[in-house]
Amino acid sequence: MALARAGEVVSNKQVLARDYIDGIPKESDMYLSTASTKLQVPEGSEAVLVKNLYLSCDPYMRGAKKPEPGRITFFAPNSPVVGYGVSKVLASGHPDFREGDLVWGITTWEEYSLITRTESLFKIHHTDVPLSYYTGILGMPGMTAYAGFYGICSPKKGDFVYISSAFGAVGQLVGQFAKLLGCYVVGSAGSKEKVEILKNKLGFDEAFNYKEEEDYDAALKRYFPQGIDIYFDNVGGKMLDAALLNMRLHGRIAVCGMISQYDLEEHQGVRNLMHLIYQRIRMEGFFVYDHYHLYPEFLETVLPYIRQGKIDYVEHITHGIETGPAALVGLFSGLNFGKSVVVLAQE
Amino acid sequence: MALARAGEVVSNKQVLARDYIDGIPKESDMYLSTASTKLQVPEGSEAVLVKNLYLSCDPYMRGAKKPEPGRITFFAPNSPVVGYGVSKVLASGHPDFREGDLVWGITTWEEYSLITRTESLFKIHHTDVPLSYYTGILGMPGMTAYAGFYGICSPKKGDFVYISSAFGAVGQLVGQFAKLLGCYVVGSAGSKEKVEILKNKLGFDEAFNYKEEEDYDAALKRYFPQGIDIYFDNVGGKMLDAALLNMRLHGRIAVCGMISQYDLEEHQGVRNLMHLIYQRIRMEGFFVYDHYHLYPEFLETVLPYIRQGKIDYVEHITHGIETGPAALVGLFSGLNFGKSVVVLAQE
């Protein structure tokens, strides 16, 4: 197939939302369609027209009953799903971008997107690593792990570190950062296979399958007889409650996500917050958006680790935009195996 | 009555616990007795023998089913209740203390105490302020307010500050510190009278009676239409849950106490912790014991405020050791009016 060129009119496969979505998306909330798109930027616009190469499935891609000011609307009636991706610029009305540039940032779930919010785009300068990494280890989840671990957790060598949802796009990196610093690291995940890879491939000291544990408190006491210095929380709810019981003096809890709570009508109550006082614990929520000024520093740190093989990264890759809805839904049900990426094209 | 002197044998009224207490004390958990005590320190001991002048009722004076390592046992079978107080040294085996010294720190609920844990005692050098203040504004609650507000809340001029249990020994000070810094300050308390004094005497911008509010979230939205920068939490539970819904971006929550939870079989679940992420909130528990190195700095700050009348302090004073049990119990039921102090003697 000949490569599409600026100015051409092409067929453009899309994943559209049927309506606003209240909470976690189901496959039936999305549908496939094909549009006809002219590969050019409207006269006078500072947008860029891109070809999407990789689309990213991320746990913040949940819907709201209606658009909320200041938050990204991922799902809107008959509009392409919004999400992070890696793309190639085919045409640009913006002085900072030109044809041929590779970028990562917020795009739309279709083969070709007109991106008006160019402020969310980062140019890709290093292509000796897999481009898909810019949806994960070198993109938003990577920055999340970096900012959350180094910026929020105040980690130091020898700390006892617990990571829930440790096999996710963020968790697997936090664990590896912690190991590189000399921490003792335990992760939890939702299958035997994930646990094995955490221990044998990603270098975690221990890992456990939370689905096999009836009593999270007992599980944590087994893996942390001395207690936990840092809890990197991706799940919230009962796991957070159990971790609170096991924190050490002056422990830190980075609240990155609460995936166990997202599809509940009412969130589970967390009852052990008195332990914040008993152990003088700092618990802090954060958003990666506040930390993007650290991106150059982050790249300088992480690129050498990747090139030297000191950090590994497991991706759940599916091929073709048609696989997008199932990949996204699988993220929330725990079916995906590592960072979820949908491949649309290689270049 | 002649003053008791070192070496004499005196009659010594005491408040004893009947047993270990599981949770909040009831009056029937304590009883009065009279011992005969020789006012001297055992040969070779580094203890001090004091006459107690003021005893302090504080919300951390709760019991445990059995002694726990590292925690003070306030109530033990047929032993005097343990608590903070202001005392005068009658005899000393410790080189740092001598007869006539005034001290504050951990003592026992009796007229005369032999204090072996002298490391908990602070010498009182400034006596131009009421001595009872060393159980409150100039003692442990004052240090708690100071360390919690300046150390944990990262306050700045113009911040919107909410304090629950604002009329308590700690809350009334936090509010006044915040006003002196130029914050907008709202407190909640449990009666119309307390609310009036918060507004009219202690300088709070607004105050409300939480017992008259069915919906704490609605109450907070009424007083903080722009949201809350700092929540100084003394109560936990539902109030904390409502505050979480009203925090501003990068808000801070100092977790000082959770008095609403202390007598519950199971603590109430807090459901709105996702707001830690939405608003990037830091929530931190603390203990005053970690901050006593700041005591000299604290005194330098607060003494001038008291002398210049810039800080006021409301005490709930009762007279005679017999009033101790009721005063302590009244603290938990919200019946007391300000910082609870039991006066035993003037000198």
From TrEMBL, chains A, B:
Q: Which UniProt keywords apply?
A: Oxidoreductase
Recorded hits in CDD domains, A to Z, give:
double_bond_reductase_like
State the source organism's domain of life.
Eukaryota
Looking up SMART domains in the UniProt record yields: PKS_ER
Annotated InterPro entries: ADH-like_C, ADH_N_2, ER, GroES-like_sf, MDR_fam, NAD(P)-bd_dom_sf
One MF term from GO for this chain?
2-alkenal reductase [NAD(P)H] activity
- Span of domain Enoyl reductase (ER): 48-342
Name recorded for this polypeptide: Alcohol dehydrogenase superfamily, zinc-type
- The species this protein belongs to is Trema orientale (Charcoal tree)
